[in-house]
Design brief:
The chain is an alpha+beta fold. The chain is built from nine helices and four strands, in the order ααααββαααββαα. It has a single domain, classed as Outer membrane efflux proteins (OEP) (Up-down Bundle), CATH 1.20.1600. Strands 1-2-3-4 form a four-stranded antiparallel beta sheet, with no helix packed on it. Strand 1 and strand 2 form a beta hairpin.
């Protein structure tokens, strides 16, 4: 084996680039989770707004919620029809002794005069249920947006970790070249080359694993958005927003939906109680009777009163059932508030922990960078072994992974908290109140 002059060898070693130091430091340029963004969310930030709107157009739960609004509106129109005149045609064939006829046909007109609030209660109930379904649609929009953002963050996380693996692989390859040059110069044994190659093969396996996870996450995102080839931009600063100090429960869609259902149950109780009172109607009819080829008209104008006297306890049973539904609706409101409390508390705890890990990970990363540079210089001077240099590279990689994991954990916690507080769509200027109940935000 040819021996290089010692002076030429040191010049060659000093000319080698540092192992991926610039690439590793470049990843820290993404926004840290420290403060709210200075500017409001823009529609083109990482394409997230468009991805969410695409998910709105595709998700079956949103279509189901919008269809439920149509159902409740149709039932509202049905309830209002009780206030309008009712026109009916009637006819019969066969002998009737009461009218001495063989057949009859005519038209009847009826108009509700007063029913002690029965129709008013049905209308109010359906109006409340329509509002409840509208807020349920808004809550579904938030859940779908949350699902889409979490899928995007998962894909971006795996992409970032795969990039860190590639940078670490580049650093290990530089160390392998350095070990090869030292072995050829007789400064260390060939086992150093084998040891470096083993680390390289292990890092290639890690890179392949992260790439597979990235492809799986991209596939989930594609299913949600319908985009066959989603492009992931940089992590935008909106994920660094601080959580609210206090959640206004009554402004959240989940609580408002439950509250409207409670009010609808109040109307059902009043309807059931009104069934004890009579219903007054005005009826007018004109009937043509036929007997053996002769016919005559019978005109009538009547005031009808329908008052229940005894129905075997049916009315009392309906009242009790409606009161039970009202208690269940009240419990649903409390349950909605509890779920918000629990989700927000869990997200806030996760956010606090992730921010602490992010600060610690950043310090660990900077320390690992300095250690790696010192170990590299000492290895060139023969004061450190190759194993020390490889260990410093591994420490640097682990510090970067820890830092990036904490960054994305903080972003996930921020999304979960905003979803619990029902402010997630406000990040992207999606104005739900400006939309009608069954109209989705347009792309």
């Amino acid at each position: 084996m040819m021996k290089l002059p010692l002076s030429s060898l040191w010049l060659l070693l000093l000319a080698l680039p540092l192992p991926a130091a610039s690439g590793l430091l470049a990843t820290s340029a993404e926004p840290a989770f420290s403060a709210p963004p200075a500017e409001p969310m823009r529609a083109d930030d990482s394409g997230l707004r468009e991805a969410i709107l695409r998910a709105f157009a595709r998700h079956p739960r949103i279509a189901e919620a919008a269809a439920q609004i149509q159902v409740s509106r149709a039932r509202l129109d049905e309830a209002k029809s009780g206030w309008y005149p009712q026109i009916a045609l009637q006819g019969s064939a066969g002998h009737a002794d009461s009218t001495r006829s063989d057949g009859a046909g005519g038209v009847t007109l009826s108009q509700l005069l007063y029913d002690f609030g029965k129709t008013r209660g049905r209308v109010d109930e359906q109006e409340r249920l329509t509002e409840a379904n509208r807020f349920a649609l808004y809550d579904t929009l938030t859940r779908v947006a949350q699902e889409t953002l979490l899928a995007w963050l998962d894909a971006k996380r795996q992409q970032t970790l795969a990039q860190a693996s590639r940078e670490q692989l580049s650093g290990l390859e530089d160390i392998a070249r350095l070990a090869t040059l030292r072995a050829e110069a007789g400064l260390n044994s060939d086992s150093d080359k084998l040891q470096a190659q083993t680390r390289i093969d292990g890092m290639r396996a890690s890179e392949a694993q992260y790439q597979a996870l990235e492809q799986a996450a991209l596939a989930r995102l594609s299913v949600l958005t319908g985009d066959a080839n989603p492009q992931l931009g940089p992590l935008p600063p909106l994920f660094a927003r601080e959580p609210l100090k206090r959640i206004d429960y009554e402004s959240t869609s989940a609580v408002r939906s439950a509250r409207e259902k409670q009010r609808a149950s109040d109307e059902r109780v009043r309807q059931a109680q009104a069934d004890r009172w009579p219903t007054l109607k005005a009826e007018a009819g004109r009937t043509r009777y036929i007997n053996n080829g002769d016919g005559w008209w019978d005109d009538s104008v009547q005031l009808r009163v329908n008052a229940p006297l005894y129905q075997g306890g049916a009315i009392n049973a309906r009242v009790q059932a409606a009161e039970g539904e009202r208690e269940a609706a009240r419990a649903e409101v409390e349950q909605a508030q509890r779920l918000i409390d629990q989700s927000a508390a869990n997200a806030n705890a996760a956010l606090t922990g992730a921010k602490a890990r992010l600060r610690a990970g950043e310090r660990q990363y900077q320390s690992a960078v300095r250690t790696r540079e010192v170990y590299r210089n000492e290895y060139q001077l023969g004061k450190r072994s190759l194993n020390d240099l490889l260990s410093s590279e591994q420490d640097l990689f682990q510090a970067q992974i820890t830092r990036e994991e904490a960054r994305f954990d903080a972003a996930v916690a921020s999304v979960n908290y905003a979803a619990a507080a029902d402010t997630l769509l406000d990040w992207f200027d999606i104005d739900r109140s400006a939309q009608s109940g069954d109209t989705l935000p347009s792309l």
